[in-house]
Amino acid sequence: MQWMGRVQNLFAVFLLSACAETWGCPTECQCIGRVRVTVYCDFKDLEKVPENIPLETTHLFFMGNKFRQVVPAMFMGNVKKQDGTFLPEKGSLDQLQVIRLDLNPITIVNEHAFDRAPSLKLIYLPFDVKIQRQAFAEMKNDKQTFDGFTRVPIHPLEDPQFAAFSKF
């Protein structure tokens, strides 16, 4: 009988750890982590960024949705309380390092689009997207480099459906 109690305790610990992964996450998405959060909102038919993106987000996956443009408001998160609920106040996603926006019908990246994500190191965009001049602080004339980012070359065997830019 004592082993039954241990099994129940282990099951309770498992359930709590599983819930911790999704603690404080948009209902449309899945989140992993608390200190460094990865948010998966891919292939959800989203037309706009859902509410309650945690400020601690480091990786944001929005592939395969219905976003038509990239705007600064996409990189705003909500302040999370101790109980996992969110306050209405918004803040910049200062820890965001990777954003995947490929496989969206995005036609344009608006001016200053990434200003609210200062730690961004890797950006995936649809291949034929138009990037406005001030979308990145210092777009170069060659359209291959800007503000410390370099366009990742496409491998001949890859499907060129997206363009990637990297600071790595």
Automatic annotation (TrEMBL):
Residues 1-24 form the signal peptide. InterPro entries: LRR_dom_sf (IPR032675), LRRNT (IPR000372). This is LRRNT domain-containing protein. PROSITE patterns: PROKAR_LIPOPROTEIN (PS51257). Residues 24-59 form the LRRNT domain. It comes from Pythium oligandrum. The keyword RNA-binding does not apply. The keyword Membrane does not apply. It comes from the Eukaryota. Keywords: Signal.
